[in-house]
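Journal club prep, shared notes

We agreed each person brings one worked example of a sequence with its structure written out as tokens. Mine is 3-oxoacyl-ACP synthase. I'm keeping it raw so we can talk through how to read the token line rather than staring at a rendered picture. Sequence first:
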Amino acid sequence: MDLPDSRSAPPPVSLADVASYLPGEPVGTEYFTRFSRSERMAKNVMFRAPKARHHVDRDETAVDMVERAVAPLVERHGRELLPAIDVLLTHTQLPTNPVMGCGPEVARRLGMRPGWVYDVHNGGCAAFVHMMQLGRMILRTTAARSALIAVVQNTAGPVFTQTEIRGLAQAPVPGDGCGVGLLVKNDRAPILDIECRTYPEFAGDMDFGTGSERKYWEPGVGQACVTFTESKIAKVFARGNRLVPEVALAVCERIGVKGRDIDTFVTNQPNRLFLRNWRDALELPPERHPDSFDACGNLFAAGIPVTLDIENRAGRLRNGSVVLLAAFAHAGDFAAAAAVRWGAAG
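Then the structure, token by token:
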């Protein structure tokens, strides 16, 4: 697909490679069905369970997951890759240490000495695209030449298998995993455009509590989890149906293509109905909108890079093709999309 280029644009930044890690063996839905308490909620389209998902072990940390996800990058690019990384951006769904992110420890574990280390807590399911935007901005405006993006989803095993949580309708939906991306200041696989939008009016609509008056950090009864009411589910569903196509098509318009002409559309993977509605909105056939939901569950922020890696390793992403990424976060307070001319195939 030929796209217009601009000779006056800032230095190009490429998504040079992606890799991922899924912990342990797949966990079947039968693990949860024996604990199910709400047949009515379980039939809601938001909570229809995938066939399988992966769970992190109790003692597996976010740093462990990043290290395992990065290993294929080292195999492909050599051991000299990591010490030369200038920028490290991390997003962790469940920080091992609630006071601080994992960025500095990731750098120590991987033998990195980056000049910029940022733990990015916001962005939710769209965090990978959000960090692409941040990484590109740093590479364009400084002497930095490379950035490593790492997103960790690690709540499925620790949170959704708790004795009071595993019977909830939403418990079987999440899966654990980690995805990483390598940004490089060159034009091999250029990021063509990025759109990030914040919707403050929807902030605070996602509830996190213990089912009692206890704050999550206080001792006592009740287990912490994100909770939903049916009225809020309906609002989130309507927002998600609208926000992802909006940001995706905004990017398409700026790069001069129609949604139906995108070669591959990779989104976060919350449930089957969102996936169907999003590809219908862009007028794309299923084979151009990869679906990792049944194999991995809802990977939240890791959904985009893990799905990208699955497609890339399967040889379904052709170098030179246009890949569109899009997602929305939380109850709709953030959405983001990015277009890349793919160049990470082997």
